[in-house]
Amino acid sequence: MSTQGNDFKRWGFLACLDYESWRAEKVAETLAAQGYGAVEWTLAHFDPRRMNEAELAGVISMSRNKGLEVSEIAVQQDLVCLDADELKARVELTVRTAAAAAASGVNLVNVLTGPNRWEAGHVDVGSALTEGRAWIIMLDAYERLLDGLAAVGSQAALEPCWGTLAHDFHSTGVLLRRFANHPAFAINFDPSHFALARDDMGWIIGELAPYIRHVHIKDVAGMPGREGREFIFPLIGEGLVNWGSMFAALDKAGYRGFMSVEFEAYQYYRTILKGDPIRASELSMQQLRAIEEFMPEGLRK
Question: Which residues does the UniProt record annotate as the domain Xylose isomerase-like TIM barrel (predicted)?
């Protein structure tokens, strides 16, 4: 494992993959030793349904003691849900998670609109219900979610994502028109989904700049398709994302927040890395150091 120092302390890693079965302390120690300055926890390590307040606060304080800031908590509940009680529970889980994080000074949670088409049991928009009805259900839940987060001093960093209602710049505009002035509305900018949609990266970053609170580092190759088999999220630098253009636009927009790797090169992870998350985050750090050459000096500050 590399212990080489890294001057840019806003690189983070989303603690997914097999890290989700590890103790949080071991994950944090590993990422800090690899040169990361931040960690993005998921419900695997930060879940108010099975952890008390002290345990939740302990995850954040432990991370800081290990030298990592917590950039955000990824909650990512599917808000296109036909079961009203289940939908209410998903909104409440998001708010409870945000409240627990905010109590320790982490004021951002990562969310999706749904449907989460990679999850079993998702609603098939177009057959199970109309697209219009799906938007009505989601927007109502999203408003309740935002109101709940505002009440606890947190923000929802929406990640426009393939397969969900908000998946590119134009579909995200539906939420922008409704919630742009809401104090809890924010964007988690993942370039892979915008590149997949062939959106103009520099332009859309300029348009979304007032709302971008977090950035994912992830690449993409292929074409958007209904089944999700037409594209992959390869290693950083192998896909469609123009890192120079993205970094330049973020710098121009004045972004100075965290940039967190979301490793989803799953076939490579299984076949080459043999399911070892240490190798995945170490390889990602090597790639981050390589793409730093595309970063304007202002973005490093």
Answer: 31-276
Q: pTM score, two decimals?
A: 0.94
Query: Please, what are the averages of pLDDT over each run of 10 residues along the chain (301 residues)?
Result: 60 98 98 98 98 98 98 98 97 98 98 93 91 97 98 98 95 97 98 95 96 98 82 95 96 97 97 98 97 92 79
Q: What's the token pair of residue 9? A: 């302390």
Which residues have CB under 8 Å from 294's CB, separation 6+?
Answer: 243, 244, 247
SS3 189: strand
> 211, 187 in Cβ contact below 8 A?
yes
> For 74, which DSSP code?
E
Query: Under the phi-then-psi rule, with left for phi > 0, alpha for psi from -120 to 50, and beta for the rest, what region is 126?
Result: left
Domains in the chain and their CATH numbers? 11-300 (3.20.20.150)
Exposure pattern of 198-214 as b/e (b: 16+ CB <10 Å)?
ebebbebbeebbebbbb
Distance of CA 285 to the CA centre of its chain: 17
The reported pLDDT for the residue numbered 2 is: 41
Paired tokens of 167: 């998946």
Instruction: Show the CA angle centred on residue 98, arms to residues 236 and 27, nearest 5°.
Output: 45
The rounded distance, in Å, linking the Cα atoms of 296 and 242 is 14
Residue 40's closest CA among 8, 18, 63, 56? 63
Residue 128: per-residue pLDDT: 87
pLDDT at 7 (0 to 100): 67
Confidence at residue 224, expressed as pLDDT on a 0 to 100 scale: 85
Q: Tell me whether residue 20 is exposed, middle or buried, using C-beta atoms within 10 angstroms of its C-beta: 0 to 12, 13 to 18, 19 or more.
A: middle
The number of residues making up the chain comes to: 301
Give the type of residue at 21: S
Biggest distance spanned by C-alpha atoms of the chain: 52
